[in-house]
Amino acid sequence: MASLGLAQRIRIGLDGNSGVEFPMMDRAGRLNFGKKRVGFRVMASEGQSVEPDLSVTVNGLKMPNPFVIGSGPPGTNYTVMKRAFDEGWGGVIAKTVSLEADKVKNVTPRYAKLRADANGSAKGQIIGWQNIELISDRPLETMLKEFKQLKEEYPDRILIASIMEEYNKAAWEELIYRCEETGIDAFEINFSCPHGMPERRMGAAVGQDCDLLEEVCGWINAVATVPVWAKMTPNITDITKPARVALNQGCEGVSAINTIMSVMGINLDTLRPEPCVEGLVSLH
Ligand SMILES: Cc1cc2nc3c(=O)[nH]c(=O)nc-3n(C[C@H](O)[C@H](O)[C@H](O)COP(=O)(O)O)c2cc1C
């Protein structure tokens, strides 16, 4: 079933019509379900309990609804992806995987807060966040096993593998073959992660370089047999340029956008950008 927010409730009217109710707010900002407007109506036969049909087909992928979880913490493992499907999400883009998870060094904590007050006083209102989470550090074998299990248990949902590799044709091909064997429905290519790992020519290092992007998209589309979306970085002067390159090279779609880079502060003793955890930073 499609998930609706707290502010909406499915209504089946006595007149046999169903709709989604949008309660009014009172002056104090409280939701009032007594007073309402009907947001839209779906005709239904009398007395029958129906839900609106939110199904969509995108690039041949039939989804029960258009709500798809972006790659990140909610796609880290089987448990959280299963939870997403159980809660009604139409699709999940899993956390980005690569062939050699042991090269990925994630640290904790991974978020920095930006506060409104001068000098970042702990009392200041939080006005921004920055994360320094890299791609998945779980063994690829484990992730693939979990993709397979999810597809077996939720055949009507869309599971998209997010992948990222080094500038190496054979590595990209191997990763694509191995992911496809699990039954995933599509690929999202991570050409956009701002913190990882440019020294290995991965993520945004490819998405910000149209020549590199063209070549890598060519490798991917020559072997992938399921739809491919290229995930764009916003950290570029003109996002339409890499988007055109990806589409011209055979990608079915582009996803926008990955993390916007920002500087959350500078440690004046070490001159290192925040967040700096265990000596590691994500700005280069
Ligand atoms: C903690 C964290 C981890 C993320 N990991 C990934 C990832 O592995 N792969 C990816 O493509 N995007 C990743 N993202 C980016 C998100 O998918 C999303 O593109 C980004 O947060 C911008 O969307 P938002 O403004 O809704 O947060 C991550 C974001 C966060 C906050």
TrEMBL record:
Its cofactor is FMN. It is an enzyme of class 1 (oxidoreductase). Transmembrane segments: none annotated. Keywords: Flavoprotein, FMN, Oxidoreductase, Pyrimidine biosynthesis. The keyword Flavoprotein applies. SUPFAM superfamilies: FMN-linked oxidoreductases. Its EC number is 1.3.1.2. Pathway: Pyrimidine metabolism; UMP biosynthesis via de novo pathway; Amino-acid biosynthesis; beta-alanine biosynthesis. This is dihydropyrimidine dehydrogenase (NADP(+)). It comes from Solanum tuberosum (Potato). The gene is LOC102599024.
